[in-house]
């Protein structure tokens, strides 16, 4: 017994010693992180009083650094072996989204035979194709979508704060059809109430399916006649397929099926929502893919931005309103709220102009309509909102540009200035996505971005890009490097950013003496 106690005590001492050595090794390097300027153009003096904190981590060992840089002055590194504090994810977010019906544009394969389900939206098409598929072959047929989907095939997904997470119309129908799966009578009644609302919402957005929209269905069977692969696509090939032996490509004609048109319609839809106060703002845009023509909205309240008022219980369809009607040629580019949640920002584009609509989120009233330029319908602007700053960036290969708007005390936006950004072949180019932070002091726009361009693990991942602008143009552009990139064995290991802790920004930026 004494020997066992002695062995346990020695092991304890060894573990403490090992921990001390590890902590010492970490501590010896924790204060050695250096941020150095590699190159710049313009005057570095404009960085005076700027303070940037980089949030870095070791992807392998889960070690974390907060490195604060004051250009021309000091660098301070705070080291931690625990993740940065993360705000708890809130579930009280309402979301209402329309998706293309499940199954069109996808496939299913498996090692086990596939059984067709009557609840599958494309069941009639799969069954008709399977009935004419010989064992050991792949067979494809083309169907007129309107014969099976008189209305555009949409699936509604709804999350409601305090009640439930994401639910689709199809999943709620399945729950109600299988009452034995409910944990209580109250849960079953809640599912029935939700189903009633989703069906009313679905009936509100009846969009007829174009008569030239066709769906190609492929079914593959093994030699025993069991289905092992299903596929559907709205993209009809120019050369029709035919029955083929197992594993051989499709051929020149379709056995016992209608001719496949070369120029059939392909449909696409987009939908998004934001919650602002006691309302959900959302849109549903459904168009032809070939010429971007808007589908028929005559059976709906109209095309544009909708508002659905939230209640203590499930929302009522009577609380739905079209707050911003749009013309058919206005393509929707972006929907968001300002950082305060008091304004809803909604952007559209036509062949002639891009417009930014700003609505009061509490009332749905249109407050402003701002012209934001025109870069062509195939160019999608990037929208960034930090504090009271709105940055609209049009990113092109050689002529990227931006427009800067500032939010005034009354919530309205005024344009400050525009500028041309570095081209993608410039060392000072940065992708202006979520890793970019910005600051506007009333005259100068500061842009800071973690320059994570690593695609193969060979390029440095802990770099920083800084740019400063005013109405006259670019004042400074600089590329900064971190010593984490030069640490032994660090290639592809250290990154700026919190990894899985997505609610922590990759960097923060402020002026010490604003």
Description:
With 514 residues, this protein is mainly beta. It has 5 helices and 30 strands. The chain has a 5-stranded antiparallel β-sheet with strand order 1-28-27-26-25, with no helix packed on it. Strands 2, 3, 4, 29 and 30 form a 5-stranded antiparallel β-sheet that branches. Strands 6-11-10-7-12 form a 5-stranded antiparallel β-sheet. Helix 4 packs across helix 5. It is globular and about 75 Å long. The N and C termini lie far apart (69 Å).
| Largest beta-sheet characterization | 5 strands, antiparallel
**Beta-strand segment tally:** 30
How much of the sequence lies in strands comes to 35-45%
Poorly predicted spans? 1-31, 86-91, 239-263, 453-458, 488-492, 498-504
Query: How helix-rich are the residues, as a percent range?
Result: 10-25%
Shape: globular
Radius of gyration: 29 Å
Overall pLDDT level: 76
- Terminal-residue CA separation: 69 Å
> What class, by secondary structure content?
mainly beta
Going across the biggest sheet, name each strand in turn: 1-28-27-26-25
Number of helices: 5
Topology:
Layout (H helix, E strand, L loop, with lengths): L1 H29 L4 E8 L7 E9 L4 E8 L3 E7 L14 E6 L5 E4 L13 H9 L5 E8 H4 L5 E7 L3 E5 H9 L7 H20 L9 E8 L5 E7 L10 E2 L21 E10 L2 E10 L15 E6 L10 E6 L5 E7 L5 E7 L4 E7 L5 E6 L10 E5 L2 E6 L6 E7 L5 E8 L15 E5 L4 E6 L12 E8 L2 E10 L11 E3 L10 E5 L3
Antiparallel strand pairs: 1-28, 2-3, 2-29, 2-30, 3-4, 5-8, 6-11, 7-10, 7-12, 8-9, 10-11, 13-14, 14-15, 15-16, 17-18, 18-19, 19-20, 21-22, 22-23, 23-24, 25-26, 26-27, 27-28
Helix pairs in contact: 4-5
């Amino acid at each position: 017994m004494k020997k066992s106690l002695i062995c346990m005590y020695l092991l304890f001492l060894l573990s403490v010693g090992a921990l001390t050595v590890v902590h010492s090794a970490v501590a010896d390097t924790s204060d050695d992180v250096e941020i150095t300027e590699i190159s710049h153009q313009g005057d570095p003096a404009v960085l005076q009083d700027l303070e940037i904190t980089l949030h870095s981590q070791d992807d392998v060992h889960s070690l974390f650094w907060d490195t604060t840089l004051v250009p021309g002055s000091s660098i301070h590194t705070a080291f931690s072996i625990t993740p940065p504090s993360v705000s708890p994810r809130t579930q009280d977010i309402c979301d209402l989204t329309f998706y293309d019906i499940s199954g069109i544009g996808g496939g299913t394969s498996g090692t086990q035979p596939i059984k067709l389900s009557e609840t599958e939206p494309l069941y009639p098409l799969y069954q008709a194709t399977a009935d004419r598929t010989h064992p050991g072959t792949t067979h494809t047929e083309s169907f007129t979508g309107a014969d099976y989907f008189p209305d555009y095939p949409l699936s509604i997904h709804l999350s409601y704060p305090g009640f439930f997470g994401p639910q689709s119309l199809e999943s709620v129908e399945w729950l109600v059809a299988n009452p034995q799966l409910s944990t209580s009578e109250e849960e079953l009644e809640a599912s029935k109430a939700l189903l009633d609302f989703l069906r009313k919402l679905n009936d509100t957005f009846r969009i007829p399916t174009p008569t030239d929209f066709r769906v190609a269905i492929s079914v593959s069977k093994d030699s025993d006649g069991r289905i092992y692969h299903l596929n559907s696509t709205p993209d009809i090939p120019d050369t029709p397929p035919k029955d083929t032996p197992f594993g051989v490509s499709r051929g020149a004609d379709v056995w016992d099926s209608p001719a496949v048109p070369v120029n059939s319609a392909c449909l696409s839809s987009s939908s998004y929502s934001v919650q602002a106060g006691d309302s959900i703002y959302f849109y549903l845009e459904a168009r032809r893919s070939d010429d971007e023509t808007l589908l028929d909205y005559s059976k709906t309240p109209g095309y544009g931005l909708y508002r659905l008022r939230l209640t203590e219980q499930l929302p009522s369809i009577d609380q739905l309103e079209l707050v911003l009607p749009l013309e058919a040629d206005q393509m929707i580019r972006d929907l968001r709220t300002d950082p305060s949640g008091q304004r809803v920002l909604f952007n559209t584009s036509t062949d002639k102009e891009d417009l930014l609509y700003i609505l009061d989120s509490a009332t749905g009233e249109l407050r402003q309509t701002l012209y934001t330029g025109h870069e062509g319908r195939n160019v999608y602007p990037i929208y960034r909102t930090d504090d009271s700053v709105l940055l609209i960036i049009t990113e092109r290969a050689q002529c990227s540009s931006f427009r800067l708007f500032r939010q005034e005390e009354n919530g309205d936006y005024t344009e400050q200035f525009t500028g041309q950004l570095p081209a993608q072949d410039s060392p000072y180019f940065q992708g202006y996505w979520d890793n970019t932070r910005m600051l506007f002091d009333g005259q100068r726009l500061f842009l800071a971005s973690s320059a994570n361009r690593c695609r193969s693990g060979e390029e440095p991942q802990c770099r920083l890009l800084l740019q400063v602008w005013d109405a006259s143009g670019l004042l400074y552009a600089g590329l900064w490097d971190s010593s984490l990139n030069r640490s032994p064995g660090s290639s592809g290991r250290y990154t700026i950013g919190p990894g899985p802790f997505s609610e922590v920004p990759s960097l923060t930026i402020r002026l010490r003496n604003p």
